[in-house]
Design brief:
The chain is α+β, with helices and mostly antiparallel strands. The chain has one helix and seven strands. It folds into two domains: about 1-35; about 40-125, Immunoglobulin-like (Sandwich), CATH 2.60.40. Strands 1, 2, 3, 4, 5, 6 and 7 form a seven-stranded mixed sheet that branches.
Amino acid sequence: MKISFVGSQALSLLTMSIRCMVLIACVSVSSIVSAHNVLKSSVPADGAALESSPSELALEFNGQVRLVKLSLKNGEEEVEVGFKPDLTAASSFAIPVPELAPGAYALEFSIIGADGHTVAGHFNFGVGMPAAHEGGGH
């Protein structure tokens, strides 16, 4: 009788261990799946003070995303960069820009990640002067 009790106790312990492992696996997977894509780096970098105009804006993300919005402003003035949304997913993008006059610039963007979530971000840089001191989107 005592052996049966030990066997049943061992079975209960094994069952509890398996349930704990399954719970931990589910929590780990759900936290990975719910993580949103973020901007890893940009050229120019957030807060950069450039001596001259960049020829392009480069954005690198931590995963495959679709860049659906990009807006560049010098103060309140919109700078036309010819951006058109593309449904092709990539982890990096290079957007050519015209010659930028000296000023403080703000770049805003929106991406859609593989999980379908839209994430917005922004960063600032300056050409021939310091960048604006707002919080950046990195």
